[in-house]
Amino acid sequence: MWQTISDSLPQLIAAGIKFTIPLAIISFIFGLILAVITALIKLARPKGNVLVKAIWGILDAIAYFYVWLFRSTPLLVQLFIIFFGLPNIGIQMPAFTAAVITFSLNTGAYASENIRAALLSIPDDQWEAAATLGFNTRQTLFKIIFPQAIRIALPTLSNEFIGLVKDTSLASSITILEMFTVSQEITAKNYQPLLMYCLVAALYAVVCSLLSILQHYLEKHANRYIKRGES
Questions:
Q1: pLDDT at 49
Q2: CB neighbours (10 Å) of residue 176?
Q3: DSSP state letters, 146-185
Q4: Does 85 score more than 90 pLDDT?
Q5: Rounded Cα gap, residues 131 and 143, in angstroms
Q6: Average pLDDT of 136-151?
Q7: CA-CA distance, 163 to 208, in Å (whole number)?
Q8: What domains can be seen in the chain, in order of their start residue?
């Protein structure tokens, strides 16, 4: 058993470093950007002529449909549609690209609701206070509203990232050689599925535990001034 573990562990760790972790990080970054854009579209009520309001209404409808679609369908089905389905209409892409697109879209849909809720939790009088100080909308968002919203959304976004790390195992279904795929290949050679799947589960547990520790530190750092004020 120990010989099998010592032989398999380097391969699994290498797959995690090469595919699992980069896939999760890249997808989360793109998903977070998409989430912020979606949340702002759903919250904003622009002032202007009829054309501006009509365009924004269309964008708002697209944002609501996008969030509904990706929150209402399984992630595995989304992977299959993008990687196996789109080539039928002439859209073909590498497996890693398809995985990044799918995970980013899925993460963006869920994270947008977290960010929207965090933005809504900021009192409206902070906008008024910023206006009295001469801040425009962009300055108010980036200097006053977003810093507070990030602190509020941090726990849920951290949980979203940890969940994404575990969801990358689904990429094995579209031929990406991440940790779970490598464990399956090794199992086909040594015929020890229980040992190999427990080993890859342990690696995921280690990674997610480290991320949980980092999450705790980030939350503590983000709330340092609030705790001082209460004490």
A1: 76
A2: 23
A3: HHHHHHHHHHHHHHHHHHHHHHGGGGGGGT---HHHHHHH
A4: yes
A5: 12
A6: 84
A7: 9
A8: 2-230 (1.10.3720.10)
